[in-house]
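Suppose you are handed a protein chain with no further information: no name, no annotation, nothing but its sequence. What can you learn? This example shows the usual starting point.
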Amino acid sequence: MALALLPPSPASHRRSLRPVSSPPLARVTPAARFCPAFFSSLSPGSCSLQRTGAAGGDGDGAGEGSSEAPVAGWLDADLLRRVSGAADADQALDIVAESSGGAGAALEAPECNAIVAAALDRGNVELALSVFEAMRSGFAGVGGWRWARPDVRTYALLVQRLAAALRVSDAIRIIDCVSRAGVSSTEEVPFGIIVRCPTCMVAVAVAQPQDGTQVVSCSKCRYQYELFSGEITSIESEEVSMDISALEKALRFINIRKDGLPAAVHSIVISAPSGTARTHRFATQTVELPAQEGERVTISLAAPSNVYREMGPLKISARSQGFKPGEPMCLTNHINGQVSKLLRAPSKNEGSFFVSPYLLVGALALLASGDAASAFIDPSLPRLIAATAVASAALPQKAVDIVAVRQQLLSQYDILQSRLKDLKQFAQKEVWMLARMCQLDNKILAVGEPSYRARRGRVKRVRESLESTLLARIELMESYAKLCSMIEIEVEMDSDVIAAEAASSAERISEQIQQLMEIDSLEEQWRIQAEANDEAERLLSSDSSETLPAGRV
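A reasonable first move is to predict its three-dimensional structure. Written in structure tokens, the prediction is:
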């Protein structure tokens, strides 16, 4: 499905540990139909992962385990039985190295999936999870042997079988790993948090863990901002209520004054990784705290007074209109990704609205642009104001191109992360529902009443539908995660890369994103999912409303 955008390496490039002929296909039972992705035939020298049973017993008898399917290459049934009894991934790799007797090599993904499936069939969930962590780490073991990187089949196999084994928390943890493709389990250098422009709310920069202070420019509004990132060491909040006059209410009604009314005033101290600490005071429209003590945040400020560009005798600052130098405008929480718009904190000795300096400056500019004021104000003032406004928004063409391409990539990254978050939430709900279906199947088997055969068939159909949609969703998540990794690579390249090369990469990524969006918008998947959810809800409601006679249980 979505993996067509990022095809696997050709079969000719795959490495086979021993040249063997392709084995005959195993006889697949009806219970194997839920995971079609695991049954695709592979090239000679690769493993053919075939599942013929499900955890919890999908056969006719209770407690029936999965029958062993023949595997290509040197991973025969006897070796899989020995490996599946290992305590962890290191011991399993020792058994593989001992049985091969040759030099170390890298196991292929199908062979690793076969070992994981054998461990799950035997009920050795800890070994399956240990192998998965070893596959993500990619470190070499004894004798040069190493595990392959996990693929979509690895993720889907673990999620489906862990949910069937009622290990919901472990299955959800695997889903979290799908959305972070290419990031090992020991990763301590994350890409960072996307920070948006306070004025036009487009992605402008990445706040990484080591960042403290940085000055960025927005290619859309062409204003400059200062970003200060750090951990909140203290926070004080106070709820306020402001009385406004009828005239000011009228001005707000006709949108002359668009700033909101503050409901609470906050004073926070932010400590950067370098040890620098700052105090910022601002207001919010609600009484809710935008962040709490101990959380890492990035506060976006208007360009400070020391950030300017020289144009002849003038020093022009590209600061957003209506804001003081260094005034807080927006706050981004790194924990939950919430973006909060900030207001100017009211001063205790604040004067009337009509003596506001911003109103006076605005009135002066308005009078300066009119003919009636020509006798009172220097006629060159309007041209000076206009020249200053244009100069404050102008940036060098090369800098604009580089910033625009980078921010385009960051905007696409922000969209992909939002889609990944939604897909992860849907997948987590499906995992819970699949686990409940498996638990319901176990209850029916425990009761052992012949009258429940029809209901067990309904449960089985719902379970197959859930596993199918879960597999499709994992494939889509994995494709989105790969695109995010591609964008991270492009963004973290040297800033001196030619803008045309970066623009070409951005265009290529945009095309792949568009294709994924079209695939993601197919209504057939969501129709199947809706039917499965409705059927599951009906089964759960009927199961809870009906009780069995005490003598028959």
